[in-house]
Amino acid sequence: MQQAVAIPLGIDALRVRAGEVIGTSPWLAVEQSRIDAFAGTTLDHQFIHVDPVRAKATPLGSTIAHGFLTLSLLSHFAEAVLPEISGLAMSVNYGFDRVRFVTPVRPGSRVRGVFTLVALEQQADHRFQMRLAVTIEIEGETKPALVADWLTVLFMVQD
Questions:
Q1: pLDDT digit string, tens, across residues 12-40
Q2: Are 7 and 83 in contact (CB under 8 A)?
Q3: What average pLDDT does the chain have?
Q4: Is 158 in contact with 137 (CB distance < 8 Å)?
Q5: CA gap 100, 119 in Å, rounded
Q6: What's the whole-model pTM score?
Q7: Is 13 helix (H, G, I), strand (E, B) or coil?
């Protein structure tokens, strides 16, 4: 089966999609090895993340992924599913207005990102700010792992 080629959206075509889900990523497994690697990278070795024996004795019942690991997966998920924007020179992560870690992600869980375009506002001649409502879902769970309001600045090619 041949895969469809995505057609880049113009900035105006993207803007009219405000309020719509504009991308849902494939599922990604979060294994203990990924959690351990993140602990090593961030120097956050709290036992609830890296010690299955001690973590089992807590109310959590197992180790859990770092909240910041879950948050960091947004870049991967976004790259996989957000539409290509025609005339885009570059985009820059501008940060978050709100982030909540709702449900712990346990080793062996699968997660995915869901991106809803909230707004796309022009800030200058060739600069736009995109606001996304993002959710990281956990397969088989009713509550998400994370919800956030993510801001990105889009710099368009100048004529």
A1: 999 999 999 999 999 999 999 999 999 99
A2: no
A3: 94
A4: no
A5: 20
A6: 0.91
A7: helix
Furthest C-alpha separation in the chain? 62
Q: How many residues does the chain have?
A: 159
Q: CB-side exposure of 12: number of CA atoms within 13 Å?
A: 0
Instruction: State how far Cα 132 lies from the chain centre.
Output: 10
Lookup: tokens for 25: 């990523």
d(CA 43, CA 146): 22
Domains of the chain: 11-156 (3.10.129.10)
d(CA 119, CA 138): 26
Rounded distance, CA 151 to CA 107, Å? 29
